[in-house]
Amino acid sequence: MGLDLVHDIQKAYRQVLDSMSQPGKINTIHEQAMKNSLEIRCFPSTIVLIQMLLDTEIKFKVCSKHEKEWVKLINQLTYAQVSNADEADFILILNDAEKKDAEMALKMASIGNLQNPQCGATFIIEASSLNSGQELKITGPGIMTEQLIKVDTFENLMDLRSEKNAEYPLGIDLILIDSQDHVLCLPRTTLIEQVVR
Q: If you count DSSP H runs as helices and E runs as strands, how many of each does the chain have, helices first?
């Protein structure tokens, strides 16, 4: 049975929302991701997020070696509009993206404005792992005191994110997913420090 665009998407949405409201909490959308029948070069959970978050009103940018194929597929699935990174509501950084393209997208991404800070871009990033890699300490709303997380993704991601989020309430939000369909969210309100051991 394929992905139910109402029931399954709502179920996955609740998991992502829970991760966004409790930064650092890892949830899973594995059940929904396994219903994906598309044979493509990405994590199955990426397709779930695309179908959940993109629609005709949304502008998106893809960082991938297969960007043209992705643009066509996303347009067919959601009717969302492709755009440059500085105008995109959602920016997808897939696991085959070149580091320089991912960094450029982060640097160009919209952080919103003081009247509409919610217009800052949201990144969907395919991470190698959400259980290993760079150790980070996070604090902020939704976190009791502080929390340690590990994220294995491209170098400089967190430094570039900190630069983009320097003028709160302006900034970008991150949704990270891995190949096991885990989801971890880092909204702009979350402060991140690298742990040095």
A: 6, 10
Query: Hunting for tokens 């219903």 — which residue is that?
Result: 35
Are 190 and 151 in contact by the 8 Å Cβ rule? The answer is no
DSSP conformational letter for 119: G
Query: 7-194: what CATH class?
Result: alpha beta
pLDDT (0 to 100) of residue 182: 97
- DSSP class per residue in 79-137: --EE--GGG-SEEEE-TT--HHHHHHHHHHS----SS-GGGS-EEEEE-SEEEEEEEEE
pLDDT value of position 1: 56
Residue with tokens 């939000």: 173
pLDDT one-digit tens code per residue, 16-25: 999 999 999 9
Domain boundaries, the chain: 7-194
